[in-house]
Amino acid sequence: MALSDEERKRLEKLEQELAATDPDLDRQLQDGMSRNWASARTVYAVLSVFAGFALVIAGIVTQLAVIGVAGFLLMVGAASWFLGGLSQGGATGRQPERPTNGGPLPL
């Protein structure tokens, strides 16, 4: 649902007031996901992949397929989570900018 002209003007005025009163918050909101979260996401994903690999090895050593399958699923899930974050926000964690006309995000 598109914004009316009056709503769009109010929103633009609020954005300008925010930028004038608190430029740090405005910059943080413009950046989307913070870089700290993007780097933490990377660390958690890599640690999860290593933990999954350790479970696969433990499954092989103990000859319990359930442990190996759980480790494999953990590795695939962690890799998917990491790569999903890259496709959404890139390596910097930035979200795509929304058009000013209130339309959908570009693909």
SSE inventory with pairings:
Layout: H1 5-21, H2 23-31, H3 35-62, H4 65-89
Please give the alpha-carbon distance between the first and last residues.
Answer: 19 Å
Number of strands: 0
Q: Per the principal axes of the C-alpha atoms, what is the gross shape?
A: elongated
Helix percent band: over 70%
- Main sheet summary: none
Mean pLDDT across residues: 78
**Spans with pLDDT under 50 lasting ≥5 residues?**
none
Category by helix and strand content: mainly alpha
Q: Strand share of the residues?
A: under 5%
Task: Give the C-alpha Rg.
Answer: 21 Å
**Order of helix and strand elements from N to C terminus:** HHHH
Number of helices: 4
Overview of the structural elements:
With 107 residues, the protein is an all-alpha fold. Helices cover 74% and strands 0% of the residues. The chain has 4 helices and no strands. Helix 1 packs across helix 2 and helix 3 packs antiparallel against helix 4 (65-89). The longest helix has 28 residues, at 35-62.
Give a brief rundown of this model:
Helices cover 74% and strands 0% of the residues. It has 107 residues and is an all-alpha fold.
Key features?
single chain; 107 residues; 0% strand; elongated
